[in-house]
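Closing statement on the TLP sub-project.
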Amino acid sequence: MIDLRSDTVTKPTDAMRKAMASAEVGDDVYGEDPTVNRLQEMAAAMFGKKAALFVPSGTMGNQLAIRLHTQPGQEVIVESKAHIVRYEQGAAGALAGVQLHWVVGNRGLITAEQVETAIRPTDPYTIQTGLICLENTHNSGGGTIYPLATIERIRALANTHRIPMHLDGARLFNAIAATTLPPASYAQHFDTLSVCLSKGLGAPAGALLMMNDLALLDRAKRLRRMYGGAMRQSGILAAAGIYALEHHIARLKLDHDHAKKLARRLQQIPTVRISPQDVDTNIVIFDVIGHKLTPPALVAALKQEGLLINSLGGTSFRAVTHLDISSAMTDQACEIFARVLET
Ligand code: TLP
């Protein structure tokens, strides 16, 4: 089976499993897991932040950040199809008591002008803007990379209005591999950022929430505990993360090449709508219009041929390349797409 449903489906490699098996561990609630501590120090140094906190998931990283920066009753500016909007089960409202102020982006990217319009006036009756969240790369936008200049302009606005900024960097490593920009060039513009180890980097679980403010770190640790995310001998997972940071960043470019190849092949199919030039990284989002099969039937027909993809609702589909997809499997996926969609 060629599984392009997500880059979350990767399984730890043998070398990663060896690193996990031999990890030195301790109780991380006491701050005594040397491998977790090493991972946190590594990540903080890599992104030019003072501290990093290992958390079980990207969702928890985002939700801790929202809770840390806001007061109940405030709102968070976020793109309309952001993961925080679509896929976190309403956690921002349920856990932090904030509402989300959606801004409709272009392929998931919002501009400084849009943010400026969305920031609320500070009069006594209008809801207050507590936080601005960006997502880089943007998942539902199709793995889109934020231009640094846009981030800089949004940061300048945030400074003027004294609003903190959080980055959902679940796939920031894909942006880093694609642009070859230093990680800190993105990270410097955010008060907090979370990055995932369990997407393209291929670790089985884990994300890192990073920041400069050590008082914020202290509160983040308490909230992580409150949300049930404080772990014990989590060095076993952190070892996978260290291995991933050391070995799996540069290779992400290969996933991007595979995604481009899929997009180019899909473009040749008459019922498919896709612009391969918009595929920046490892996510391929496309529409199938006027095919005799319904979207669920198309997904089932592809599965029958050995290819798994996700339906995004309506006529949209998503295919994601990753560590467990070789060049030969990409070629096979192209053939299966052609076989099923061209009939
Ligand atoms: N994304 C998953 C699904 O939840 C949709 C996927 O298959 O792409 N931020 C972004 C941008 C994400 O894409 C994801 C996961 C997360 C956060 C959450 O990560 P986890 O699943 O570790 O909580």
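The mean pLDDT is 98. With this model delivered, the sub-project is considered complete and its resources will be redirected to Aim 3.
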